Amino acid sequence: MESLKQSWRILTDGFLNSYAQVFFSDDRKLGWILLFVSFIDVNAGLSGAIAAIVSNLAAQLMGFDTWFTKKGYYGYNSLLVGLGFGLTFNVGPAFFLLLLVAALLTFFFTIAFQGFFFKYGLPYLSIPFLLGIWLVMMASAEFSELGLSTRGIFIHNELFAIGGKGLIDGVSWFDEWISHEWIRTYLFSLGAIFFQYNLLAGLLIAIGILLYSRIAFTLSIYGFMLAWGFYHITGADISVLGYSYIGFNYILTSIAIGGFFIIPSRWSYLWLIWLLPMVIMVTLSLQKLFAFLQLGLYALPFNVVVITFLYVLKIRIKPGHRLIETPVQLFSPEKNLYQLRTNVNRFHSIDYQPIGLPVIGEWTVSQAYDGELTHKGEWAQALDLIILGNNKKQFREGNNVQDYYCYEKPVVAPADGIVADVTDGISDNLIGDSNINKNWGNSIVLKHNDHLFSQVSHLKPGSIKVKKGDHLNKGEIIGWCGNSGRSPFPHLHFQIQETPHIGSKTMNYPLSNYLVEEDGRLTLKTHAIPAIDEKVTAIQNHAMLEQAFHFVPGRKFVFEVEKADDDWLAGRHEWEVKTDEYNNSYIECARSGATAWFYNNGNIHYFINYLGTRKSLLYYFYLAFYKVLTGYYKGLTIEDQLPPNKVYAHFPMFLHDFIAPFWFYLKADFQLSYKQFNDDISASSGIISSVINLSRSRKMHFEAELSEHFITSFSVKIENQQFKAICIES
Fold it and tell me: Name one Pfam family in it (predicted).
């Protein structure tokens, strides 16, 4: 029974999303509006619905990926073929038989093109629809039982038959009310996407797009305006937009490039100034060819230009930071924008693998990148690290290597990796001397991935504890700091490189997760390059914090909220840690179905996304622990920013969305601090306090109590709402 319910849910989601996917969406409200619009012409709506159902059912029965089925990927092309089929031909036995054949054929085209285009990371858009509708139209003349429909030719007779003179008068009034040529053509073009050639359909679709996405709505108008202006400037026949309805090519191109496949920004909007004329040129040139073939052009220009442009972006050697392809598709220009902007600020680049400092405790940078002494040319991007004592010097007496504070201090793996190269047996130098023949001294190179290696040099002879081929975890001791090689005094040389050999040329690579002392206070650096004379500290996890935020798959939590005014909040809340097929981790609430997605890099716990209703205790857990350093350092404050759409109400966000590609004026600053830790190293209890600062001095306060290895409770105070959740199982 449960399996049957799940299959039904997949099919119903897939059916509605087949409509929404025409505008690159999985929004159910938009899906319902477009479903209604398709039935303005009942025959077209019915045949479109049948085609979508057939394709989604075929995908389910044939065992294709249910995620693609639910998102409507397998249904929207067949839906469009069905709409065109229903508008063009009369209903009858032959009609339904050929509709089923056309729907299945388009579905097979969809699967085939998905397999081809996805290899290149490209969308297949509506190419399956184009092939399906062209084949249907070319073959239709051979089916004598398939009669052409005359609906739409005698429109007033049809309206009179449905609603009499009153309906005719109402339609005439509506037609006169929208009198501006530009607006009429824009709405006709929108309606034509669903084969509904009337103003009402266009108006309803425009409202649906506005409710779904302010950015998509703005882009639809912007793209059509650009095309309209180009027609005027070049002297092209603009009247063709009024009767051929091909203007939807410009609308779809604008939404696709301006805000869906590309993160919406001023650069995506600017690129449309060049891309829309290309769509127009393709449209005008192909119209002549397709008129000769007696076929409709439909969405071919949109497909040609969008797929070509996306392919051009794919083969760039160095993807730019201005025109950014959407890394994870959330099916909303706003969600894509807010998620990427937040992640860039937090992680800077998803391409960077975190590499930390190869030391324990506080060290000082004696020579940084592009140093004055030895860090020059191909070896300029490197660090020399020393330890300063209370006397502000790096040694006690300075006559022997043992007098230096950093000598014989442990050196650790800066990240997980494999030992790629090792050199040992080179003697330490006397103070002031250097071994320029064996410049690097005793060294270790670790491989972190195929093009990312790290090297530590000048180690003490005989202290190296690893051999080539060993697999290491971050933080494992690999040797001791020494004074071998070109090293007049004990220090540790550290560099990142692209090749596995000792002495390879260096690369400019930021380090992750370390602390810097600035003006007497510690600051967390998650993606930076240490500067000369900076005091840097490699983060050491606190056992209690590390265990409390060690969310492994299968771990379960049960929280209980007492004396809550809201039914959705009161009582027990059961959560479980899970992973998806791509090994992404999340916490799922059994009560609300909400999910909080997280990432832990070994030193910092991040919540990276929340999906579901805000009326869930898990939502407040996500806010309270948005970013947590699992090391304890007295006086340290952790700072971050949340995506505004995760904390602000719908109306403020509705207004903000319009200008979000150009400017964020709604912000949500996150701060977290540690209190009442009774011992810096082995505290068995403590309090974490966090606050989210919103606009107009509004604040959201959270406080959590930790004991032993788990979060015992957390309390929430937001304006008039205040409650406490007690952990009764972890």
Answer: UT
Instruction: Say which residues have a Cβ less than 8 Å from residue 299's Cβ, sequence separation at least 6.
Output: 125, 126, 129, 130, 248, 249, 252
Consecutive H or E run containing 635: none
Q: Kindly indicate the confidence band of residue 2, based on its pLDDT and cuts at 50, 70 and 90.
A: low
d(CA 713, CA 649): 27
Q: Is 345 helix (H, G, I), strand (E, B) or coil?
A: helix
In words, the CATH class of domain 7-152 is mainly alpha
How far apart CA 646 and CA 649 sit, in angstroms, is: 9
Burial 485-523 (b: 16+ CB within 10 A, else e): bbbebbbbbbbbbeebebbbebbebbbbbbbbeeeeebe
Mean pLDDT for all residues in the chain: 86
Contact 453, 496 (CB under 8 A): yes
**Tokens 């090519």 appear where?**
249
- Give the Cα separation of 667 and 573 in Å (integer): 30
Domain residue ranges in the chain: 7-152, 174-331, 361-538, 543-729
Q: Determine the pLDDT at residue 679.
A: 58
For the chain, what is the largest distance between any 2 Cα atoms, rounded to a whole number of angstroms?
A: 108
Specify the residue for token string 């409709």: 296
Q: What is the pLDDT of residues 426-478, one digit of tens each?
A: 888 888 887 878 888 899 999 998 889 999 999 999 998 889 999 999 889 99
**pLDDT tens across 66-94, in order?**
989 999 999 999 999 999 888 888 888 88
Burial label, 629 (beta-carbon count in 10 A; 0-12, 13-18, 19+): buried
Cα 406 from Cα 630, distance rounded (Å): 26
Q: Do 7-152 and 174-331 come out as alike in CATH topology? A: yes
Note the pLDDT tens digit of each residue in 505-525: 998 898 988 999 877 788 888
Answer whether 661's CB lies under 8 Å from 337's CB. Answer: yes
Structure tokens at 71: 């998102």
Terminal Cα-to-Cα distance of the chain (whole angstroms): 31
**Structure tokens, 391:** 């006397």
Q: E strand or H helix at 472, and its extent?
A: strand 471-472
CATH superfamily of 361-538: Glucose Permease (Domain IIA) (2.70.70.10)
CATH level 2 (architecture), domain 174-331: Orthogonal Bundle (1.10)
Q: Which band of pLDDT confidence, cut at 50, 70 and 90, is reported for residue 255?
A: very high
Give the C-alpha separation, 271 to 254, whole Å.
10
